[in-house]
Design a protein that fits this description.
The protein is α+β, with helices and mostly antiparallel strands. Helices cover 33% and strands 23% of the residues. The chain has helices at 15-24, 60-69, 73-79, 87-90, 114-126, 184-190, 263-271, 275-282, 330-347, 354-377, 387-402, 407-417, 429-437, and strands spanning 5-11, 28-34, 85-86, 92-95, 98-99, 108-109, 131-134, 137-144, 151-158, 165-170, 173-176, 198-201, 205-214, 224-227, 236-242, 248-255, 284-286, 291-293, 298-301, 313-315, 321-322. Strands 4, 5, 13, 14, 15, 16, 17 and 18 form an eight-stranded mixed β-sheet that branches. A five-stranded parallel β-sheet has the order 7-2-1-11-20. Helix 1 runs parallel beside helix 9, helix 2 crosses helix 9 and helix 11 (387-402) crosses helix 13 (429-437).
């Protein structure tokens, strides 16, 4: 496709930024991707993504969009050792009333470490003709246009230089994909715009993750296990998944208590969960490091409700809607936002009015995953939850009680988790009737 526009700037070379750069490369002659970190030459963690040491879930809907934007990505990840699994057959779900049934569902997942996925995407994006990645650079401000009602670029500080070098980069479009650390509200204030309203839901959950290495000849047991938290009685849970080269990533979740930090604490925590998890870890060699993460706050910034918005400026990814990582929605939502941007630019190539069109549709796109995460996590916040949150918790608790004895309900639940169906599917008459008439005892 011939480029219709001259230059776009993307802030942040994480997953959302790489997806945005991939899409914009079809519509702009030049795309500059600006990243604060010095990016590694291989699949290794980096300072700007502290969550990359923890398990990541690329939901099936998101994986399909990734594959459409980067054809052959699934095969490339498989060649690097990342397995393709059936979500309902290969992942063990431990609910309060027992294990979910295992069944062939066709809902495919591909467990992969975040550093490997980001490295391969970065390598693909670097190979795109229009894209240039500038590392070690920090965006400090937006450049207003002559009217003061739009953005014409960014001001950049080259962090690795001594003395520091400040430069400006002009562009027709600026996309903020800076994640949770985005400074966009402050930049908008510098342009004289009001602060956007934010909605936050903090479940008070912390995470501790450890890598377990396979041992030759050992019977490894569980490969993938999910044991969700359950308010108010189950304050501990886990997400274990086997990624490339047989490495087991085990993340322990603790609500309103400190996640384990020592070998003894980690071992005791594991022993209190599904018995198969202790067997699986005993058959593997633990790495010495235990990674901590506590940024589980769900945050939605209502940029779409601002009456005045600068022309030439977009925001996507965690910078606008960030989820508790336990639900694995972040990468899938970022992929859907990138595809939305691509479709809008294909239908109406003009940049005039693009931010309003994009942000309004983006708000509708993120609403369902936001409600799914917020409905569960609101119950962990101090104080009495709103009536809607209490009703959602009641319904989900009863639905999860049915799952161990109902393959049909579990299959619907799995499709909603993987964003293949709307959460409305969980209120289908056949499911609704069973939930409402189920006895209180399993």
């Amino acid at each position: 496709m011939g480029a219709r526009h001259e230059h776009a700037v993307v802030i942040g070379a994480g997953i959302a930024g790489l997806l945005a750069a991939r899409v914009l490369a079809d519509h702009f002659a030049t795309v500059t991707l600006i990243e604060r970190d010095r990016l590694p030459d291989g699949p290794t963690p980096r300072p700007g993504t502290p969550q990359d040491r923890h398990p990541h879930g690329l939901l099936t809907r998101g994986a399909e969009v990734f594959e459409s934007l980067f054809p052959g990505l699934r095969a490339e990840l498989r060649a690097e050792g990342a397995p393709v699994i059936d979500f309902c057959q290969d992942v063990r779900f431990r609910f309060a009333t027992g294990l979910a049934p295992q069944l062939a569902s066709g809902i495919l997942a591909q467990p992969v470490s975040r550093p490997l996925l980001e490295y391969i995407l970065r390598r693909r994006v670097r190979a795109l003709g229009p894209v240039t990645i500038r590392t070690g650079c920090r965006v400090t401000a937006l450049l207003p246009d002559q009217t003061g009602r739009g953005v014409r670029g960014v001001r950049v500080l080259a962090c690795g230089d001594r003395p520091l070098q400040a430069t400006t980069i002009t562009a027709q479009l600026v996309v903020d994909a800076g994640g949770r650390s985005s400074r966009l509200p402050a930049w908008l204030a510098d342009l004289g715009l009001p602060l956007p309203r934010q909605t936050t839901v903090d479940p008070g959950v912390g995470y501790a993750t450890r890598v377990y290495l396979p041992q030759p000849g050992a019977v490894t047991g569980y490969q993938h296990l999910v044991q969700p938290l359950r308010h108010p009685d189950a304050r501990r849970g886990c997400f274990a998944t086997t990624v490339e080269n047989g490495r087991l990533l085990l993340a322990l979740h603790a609500a309103h208590e400190r996640a384990p930090r020592t070998d003894e604490e980690f071992t005791a925590f594991v022993a209190a969960l599904d018995p198969g998890l202790a067997e699986a870890t005993a058959a593997r060699q633990p790495a010495p490091e235990i990674a901590q993460y506590s940024r589980a706050v769900n945050r939605r910034v209502h940029y779409h409700r601002l009456r005045h918005w600068p022309a030439g400026l977009l925001v996507l990814g965690d910078a606008v809607c960030a989820f508790n990582p336990i639900y694995g929605q972040g990468m899938a939502v970022a992929a859907l936002e990138a595809r939305l941007l691509d479709r809008i630019l294909n239908r109406r190539p003009r940049l005039t009015g693009l931010p309003r069109r994009f942000h309004r549709r983006q708000a509708r796109l993120t609403l369902a995953p936001w409600l799914l995460a917020a409905a569960s996590d609101r119950c962990w916040q101090p104080g009495r939850p709103p009536l809607a949150a209490r009703a959602a918790r009641w319904y989900l608790r009863r639905l999860q009680r049915l799952i161990p004895s109902s393959p049909t309900v579990f299959h619907r639940f799995a499709r909603v988790l993987n964003m293949l169906d709307s959460p409305v599917a969980l209120a289908h008459p056949s499911v609704l009737w069973r939930v409402l008439t189920a006895g209180r005892r399993p």
